[in-house]
Each structure stands twice: as structure tokens, then as C-alpha cells.
Amino acid sequence: MRLPLSNARRKSLGLLGAAALALLAVPAAAQEFPVRGKPIRVIVAFPPGAGVDAQARAVTPKLAELLGVPVVIENRPGGGTLLAAQEVLKSAPDGHTIFYSASSTMAQNPHTLLAATFDPMKDFTPISIGARGPLVLVVNSALGPKNVKDLVAWGKANPGKLSYASFGTGTSAHIFGQVFAKQTGLQMEHIPYKGGADLAADLIEGRVQMAFDAAPAAIQNSRSGKAQIIAVAAPQRSAFLPGVPTFAEQGIKDIDIVSFLGWFGPAGMKPEVVQKINAALAQSIAQPSVQEFYKQGAYTAESSTPEALARDVKQAYDAWGNLVKQAGITKQ
User: Fold this and answer.
1) Radius of gyration of the chain from Cα atoms?
2) pLDDT, tens digit, for every residue of 170-194?
3) Single residue among 197, 222, 250 that ends a domain in this structure
4) By the number of CB atoms within 10 A of the CB, which of 20, 109, 144, 296 ranks highest?
């Protein structure tokens, strides 16, 4: 004979059932992250050996130690960083795929590339800022100019012979080049590259005369004596390049937006997962060895809250949108 349940017993069983259902409803990513034995992929939009790649590799050993799983770099160069972005967008938002991205992916590409159909504020999950550093203008030393005025004079004396390299159509380097050409009246051919190694080789050999490049790569290339940095794209001179004047000091306006790099994931990542990666990144970036490594390349390594990175993306998106309009660049 089955005895009737007391009210207290019935209530107790109801609470246990509700708790069990709640547990089942919690996504696996929130119950366990990282999944034991499952690597975390860090997608980088540049080839091995490039500055952004080197920065990511400086951070990931400590990140792996703190999270307790392997962290592997996957290089996806090409498409003005879009190939890498698309890989992240199609990945599961479980924290096992993250993106170390130049600001060009989020702030410039949506204004300049037809293929950049994503919304940078909605389709990625911000995790933490990674670094800040300016682009610089570097020229082939054999060309002769030591400053912007001399470069403009050379370009006007040699119409049709000036070309500039960038790391992809629609990137900050491309936009700066167009703004520079418009302000100076120079005719310049834009030559996009998939990665820094080919860009550096062609610049040093004189196959292109100048490049808007990230400071780490430009500094390394200038050490050969075959390339020279003549301007910094920032509101003030860089502490790492105190002898190099800004564009504004040399009479060129608006080429002063400082680039950043950030850590992102696909949209839909759980807050618990984001916070765990954010905390591990903060410790990894704060290491003295990482700080010194970034300084050697004229970048400042730093971390932030996800909310602060989201604000940076929105501000950069708006600023670059205005600059694209000024340059007269249309989506390609």
C-alpha cells in the first residue's frame, strides 16, 4: 500500500527536482571550462613570425599554465584579417576559440570591405585589451627622404613612381595611405600584403618605396639600415621612438589614431567563461617578461575589463568611419 506524501515531503522532492532541472539547464561551457584535455585555439590573422603573432606567443604559455589546458596558435593570414575573423565567427562560443585581433578587424574593415558583413559590437565577445601602439611611416633608405616634406617632394618630382605597402585592403595602413595621398596630392599605388615578411622584403629591396606599418616590424626593419622610420601616427611622439616626429608635427592632419590589439571570442560566450579567460589574460600580460617583450617592439602591453574593450571598439569604429569618409574610400 502506497502511503500519501506529506506536504513537507512533497515540497522537498519538488525542490530537488527543480534543482536537478536547473543543473541540466546550465550549459556545459558554464559547468566546466576549460574542458579537460581540449586545447584552446588562439586565432591570429598574420603569419608566423609577424609582430602580432609574436605578441600572442609571448602571452600564451602562461595562459596555458593558468587555465590548465594547451593553448595553440592558429595562423589564418589573408583577406585583410577577414579569414581569421570568419574562423572565429563560425566557432562554438565555448571559450576554446579566441581571437587576438588588430583593431583593423573591428574598426576599419566593416567600413571598407564588402566581405566584412559582421557587426563588431554584436558578433564578437570582447574579453580584454591586449596592447596599444602606433603605426609608423617607414621608407626605403635608398629613396633618400628623411622626413615627410622630403618624401612629398620626391613623390611630386617622380609622378607615378611612388607605391606604398599595407597589410591588407581596408586596414588602418591602407586608410592612412589614402588620407596621406589626399592631403599631399601625391599619386601613390597601394600594394596590400598578407603578412609582414613579404612586405618587409619588398620594402628593403625597394620594390615598394614606403609602408604604413606596425611599429614593431618597422623598428626591426630599420635596424638593417635599409629602411627608415620618418613619422609616427599618434597624437604625441612615441616614448619608444622619441626622435621621430608625428605626422601632425610635419603638417599632416588626422593620421593620429593609435591602433590597439584585443582578445575576443565568438558572440554568445557565457560571462563565467569570459571572466575566467579575462583573469588569466590579466596575469599573463602582467608578467615582466611580456611587458618587456612588447616594449621592445614599441607597444604597451595591458589588460582591461571586457566592458572597457567594448568601449574601445565602439570609439575606434566611429573614428575610423569618419576617416574613411574623409579619404573617399568605398567598400570593395
Assistant:
1) 24
2) 788 889 999 999 999 999 999 988 7
3) 250
4) 109
Classify residue 218: in a domain, yes or no.
yes
Mean pLDDT for all residues in the chain: 88
Query: How far apart (Å, rounded) are the C-alpha atoms in residues 8 and 10?
Result: 5
Do residues 149 and 70 both lie within one domain?
no
Question: Is there a domain that residue 32 lies in?
Answer: no
pLDDT single digits (tens) 244-297: 999 999 999 999 999 899 999 999 999 999 999 999 999 999 999 999 999 887
Residue 245 contacts residue 149 (beta carbons within 8 Å): no
Cα–Cα distance, 297 to 60 (Å, whole number): 18
* The most confident of 56-60, 131-135, 167-171, by mean pLDDT: 56-60
- State the cell numbers at 107: 574598426
Q: Is there a domain that residue 298 lies in?
A: yes
Q: What angle do CA 174, 97, 268 make, to 5 degrees?
A: 95
Q: Which domain holds residue 286?
A: 39-134+259-327
**Is position 319 within any domain?**
yes
How many distinct structural domains can be found in the chain?
2
**123-46-254 Cα angle (round to 5):** 75
CA angle 126, 129, 132 (to 5 degrees): 140
Q: Are residues 147 and 240 in the same domain?
A: yes
Check whether residue 173 and residue 316 sit in a common domain: no
Strand order in the sheet with 227-233: 188-192, 162-166, 210-214, 135-140, 227-233
C-alpha cell at 67: 587555465
CA–CA distance, 232 with 331 (Å, rounded to integer): 27
* Residue recorded with cell 612629398: 152
Closest to 321 measured CA to CA, from 151, 144, 116, 125: 116
Tens-digit pLDDT profile for residues 100-125: 998 989 999 999 989 999 999 999 99
